[in-house]
Amino acid sequence: MTGLLGFILGAVYIAGVWRFLSGFDKTNFTSNKVVLALLWPALIFNANYRRNFTKALKE
Question: Minimal CA–CA distance to 16: which of 54, 48, 59, 45?
Answer without folding.
Answer: 54
